[in-house]
User: Fold this.
Amino acid sequence: MTTSATSQIAETAPPVRSTRRWLALTVLALAQFLVVLDASIVNIALPVLGQQLGLDTAALAWVITAYVLPFGGLLLLGGRLADRYGHRRLFLIGVAGFVAASALAGLSVSGGMLLGARAVQGASAALLAPAALALLTQLFRVSADRTKALGIWGGVAGIGSAAGVLLGGVLTGAFGWQSVFFVNVPIGLIVLAAIPLLITRDPASVPSRLDVPGAATITGALVAVVGALSALQQLGLTHPLTLGLLLTAVVLGAAFVLIERRTTDPLVPLSVFRNRNLTTGNLVMLLVGAAMVALFFALSVFMQAVLGYDALTAGLTQLPLAGALVVVAGLAPGLVGRFGVKGTLLGSLVILAAGLVWLAMAPADAVYVVDILGPSLLIGVGLGGAFVTATQLSVDGVDGGETGLAGGLVNTSQQIGGALGLAVLASVAAARTEVLRAAGAPLGDALTGGFSWLFLGAAALTVAAGVVAAFATGHPALRD
Assistant:
């Protein structure tokens, strides 16, 4: 090979971002764990928190919503900012904001102070989450290694979702509600110290104009969607606030599409959706995220309100599910190598749907080992395979300059899906419970009947995800 040819390859080859990429992945996954954990760890602390800060039930709901709204609404913007101004830079800014906001939340002496801190937490999470996934794709460019890395990523996300109830109960009981926020601080500081030592600086890039109109309309549309879904759960579909937010989301969404079609430097190039695997992966993540968030919510309430478990015991009962998820996420590379991404995804969705249907059969006097453990293990297996492969499809074939956008898209799909699933399926469960109560059923039986419908609804969403997954092209292309 000639010297000039060698020089040309060196100039065009993507830079090596780390010589210790698996350790770097561990630190990135630690930050992702905090982001996922913070969406659920607060739930157990809400009653104590509300009593000490004087927050009523409606205000307590905003402790969750204040985090979810900016997180879901700013993810696409966060991903695009990371593409334009540097993935490592935006990741570190996001982590720093998250740590500072967590400390502020733990120090809160009023409801307003806490809600403000939660909003900053959500906005910071929207910066770091897509940037972290983009860094993962840059660290692991060969398909086999990337699948292994995404297996770890999916396992961490699953652990964060399942561990929230357990850790929230332990920390609140032992150290008070403030500890569910303070726990983020030392872990975040470790991430801030380690990443500059493990990942190189962002390569120089040509500055480009930020699509401000596109950013404003899509952010407003996503915030309106999440807000409408939260209002739907609390106020119902026909409430003026719910309808107003839905209309706002539609109008802003349409305006965003028109802007992106006409601008020369769009925030989200609509051509990215011509990538069939990316589109399929995001739709699957939307549906599976809807099923998962509703599932974890219902399991926690069912264990405590129907079976009489305390918060700690309810959290411990989810450990087998989380364990199965982690094991399968770790085995995902081998499964993908044997069955392909599409085959592994379809098989995972079938197992997940079967576990949800089985769980829907649990009676009001369910015995954990007999009625809950088996379906929990199937659900963990299905979620582990589905999350890894859906994420892999979502970043398949994406150019290096759009990896942050891809990370923002898949995280947005998961967040919007989660809000959608919780709002719709929780409403279905509540309606079914009211019907059974009106028919004279005891409270425990009525609640169980409502949760049964919720689990069946989650299974239906999973089946729909399987139908969508059938349109994937197959195994993502290998990368050098």
Remarks:
- The radius of gyration is 22 Å.
- The chain has two domains: 17-210+267-469, 211-266.
- DSSP finds 17 helices and no strands in the chain.
- The chain has a mean pLDDT of 83.
